[in-house]
Amino acid sequence: MAATTAQAMGSLPSGLGICTTAPDIFYLPELVFGGLVWILVASTRVDPPMPLGWVMFVSVFCFVMTFLWMIIFAAGGHKNSSGWAAADYAYHGLAAFFYLSAGVVLAYITFLAKPLSTKKNYQIDIAAVVRTECTHLLICIHHTENLHYST
Asked: Which sequence ranges are marked TM in the entry (predicted)?
């Protein structure tokens, strides 16, 4: 088991390598799409606002955590101790679950709010739903690609 962990740690990229190797190449698109979800959800007014609080929490939390995670990997902080591959796998699993739940909530609220929304707000809400699902897909791909690091 220790040899497997050591092998996995040796294969985790750092520095600019995270921008050129799979699955870490997905950090930047995750940040872009996650930021777009955050901006699009914040730019509309939908009643009831409570479910959108969950969507905002997910988008802000995952944006900040993905940014911090990318900085840690770029700086090589993951080379100091073992368990980073498993932690990366666990984080992306949690983020995928969060974005799936946020996408479902946002789609449902958008569906309910259609009769009350202006055309512009409805289009922004649809764009937010699409970006949420794109972010979910990117995180799922990143999570799936992490399997060979964490085993």
From this structure: 25-42, 54-77, 89-113
Side-chain-side CA neighbours of 15 within 13 Å: the count stands at 2
Which residue reads 């699993």 in tokens? Answer: 93
Task: Render pLDDT for 70-113 as a digit per residue (tens, 0 to 9).
Answer: 888 778 776 666 777 788 888 889 999 999 999 999 999 888 88
| CA distance linking residue 26 with residue 76, whole number of Å | 17
Asked if residues 38 and 45 have their Cβ atoms less than 8 Å apart, the reply is: no
Cα–Cα distance measured from residue 107 to residue 8, given in angstroms and rounded to the nearest whole number: 38
First-to-last C-alpha distance (Å) of the chain = 9
Share of the chain above pLDDT 90, in %: 21
| CA quadruple 120, 125, 38, 49: dihedral, nearest 10 | 100
